[in-house]
Amino acid sequence: MEKPEIDFIEGPAPLELVITDLIVGDGAEAVAGGQVEVHYVGVDFENGEQFDASWDRGSTITFPLNGLIAGWQEGIPGMRVGGRRQLVIPPAMAYGEAGSGHRLAGRTLVFVIDLIGVG
What we know:
single chain; mainly beta; Chitinase A, domain 3; six-stranded antiparallel β-sheet; 6 strands; about 10% helix
């Protein structure tokens, strides 16, 4: 797979987590609280600017889901290895409301995540 391009999303930011399967994988399934290996791109919903991408560092990232933001904890389980999923995550499920100290606080985030492996 290649680094995905994230299309600008028209309209108001959603208040709930929005999960869209772009490619449905056929490998092992990610489970809540499990370990995942992913490639991802993250952009700001409002301006479409990329704030992070594992692709740009040239390697995947492996971590336990229960250590991540709520949008990932809820949005990745059920995904299968080989799949690509888009998550649109409101601030309450990301880094909190504006003023909480994180540079992405108060922002709605869009991630495209490729599930490479599960553990």
